[in-house]
Amino acid sequence: MISSKYTIREQNEAKILTVIIDKNEVSRAELSTLTGLNKASVSAITKKLIEDEFISETRIGDASNVGGRKPIMLTFNRQSALVIAFDLGYNYIEAMLAYIDGTIIDSIRKRRIDVSAENVVGQMKEIIDHFLSIQPKTPHGIIGLTAAIHGQVHNNVIHFTPYYNLDKGNLWEELQAICDFPVFLENEANLAALGEYTFSSHYQNLVSISIHSGIGAGIVENGDLQVGYRGRAGEIGHSILYPHGKECPCGNLGCLEQYASNKATYQEYAKQEGLDYVNSDTLQQAFQEKNDRAIALLEKNAELLSIGINNIIMMYDPEIVVINSSLYRKIPEMIPFINAHIKNRFSKDVLIRNTFLEKSATLYGAFANSAQNFLNIKKLKLIKEEIVSLHE
Ligand SMILES: [Zn+2]
């Protein structure tokens, strides 16, 4: 049973909390000015937020120009609650426990395993039990679990997962039955975009391209994640690159991801070089050794990918496109390969960069999703300045 602490936060309470989070430190008088709420309302709401341990009084601020009493400053209690994030790949599971502001407490990685509808709940339960056993004491405890699914998801229902069978059964129901906090399932690329939006950028219009076995885009427009009517928005991996091309599990011929996904690139390189197993490390090494065949393959990958990126820029007009791919992280020199192809008069000003969140953008997005729900704040920004400043 989910307790009443998860009921929707009242609108004005969420409004005040949003300003406190954005400003980092703010007085009651400033809150009144910034929210348009009168002083009595601000006083009553901040009193409740302090009692609920969402915010604290930090220090005495400076008096205003016109004199009067020095104000008491308020700040968001960034460690008042905990969130759990999962990334469920077809051959790996990653999970993290963090404070609500994305400060990581513990992480678990299982690699080169087969993830299926039959074994996924058992594997997740083991990890959840471990997190429960080590969780630090906080006022609200664990307030949400969000799991990333590599496929089409809408309202926690998995509709189509081309590379594993999580679309069989009802994963959400099974997980909710073993968790006494809210559980959410969301598309992996959507979560990566939400992670970039919330933790790594000041932009309001952002597209994140996730490239693994498939290719998906997460779209944030004016701070809102765009998922479409059925959760299919941004499925650019299934936009057609070559008419009558290779068969795709989606039913199309010639889908972008059959040519430009990391999986397709690894397979191509393995075939070309007669290798059994190729991953991003293999190609990184070949690139560093200036292997001409590897460089040509990587340039080709960037060229094909840039067609998909160009198309999505034409549709959504983002300020920034963030690339989430182990290949592009290992070989950042591939970003200029993309830039060389994104040069028409509409797209050439769009910033294209690698993720700052390294391999964890999806997990950060999962934190953000649970936090947004618990705080009832859309457009939540919890920028990790220490991460952003590392890259800028
Ligand atoms: Zn397809």
TrEMBL record:
Source organism of this protein record: Enterococcus phoeniculicola ATCC BAA-412
Mind telling me what this protein is named? ROK family protein
Q: Which family does it belong to?
A: Belongs to the ROK (NagC/XylR) family.
- UniProt KW Signal keyword: no
SUPFAM superfamilies the record matches: Actin-like ATPase domain, Winged helix' DNA-binding domain
Pfam families reported in the protein's UniProt record: HTH_24, ROK
Classify the source by domain of life.
Answer: Bacteria
Q: Which purpose does this protein serve, as stated in its record?
A: Transcriptional repressor of xylose-utilizing enzymes.
Query: Biological process GO annotation list?
Result: D-xylose metabolic process
UniProt KW keywords: Carbohydrate metabolism, Xylose metabolism
Question: What Gene3D superfamilies has UniProt attached to this entry?
Answer: 3.30.420.40, Winged helix-like DNA-binding domain superfamily/Winged helix DNA-binding domain (1.10.10.10)
Kindly give the InterPro entries that the UniProt entry links to this protein: ATPase_NBD, ROK, ROK_cs, WH-like_DNA-bd_sf, WH_DNA-bd_sf
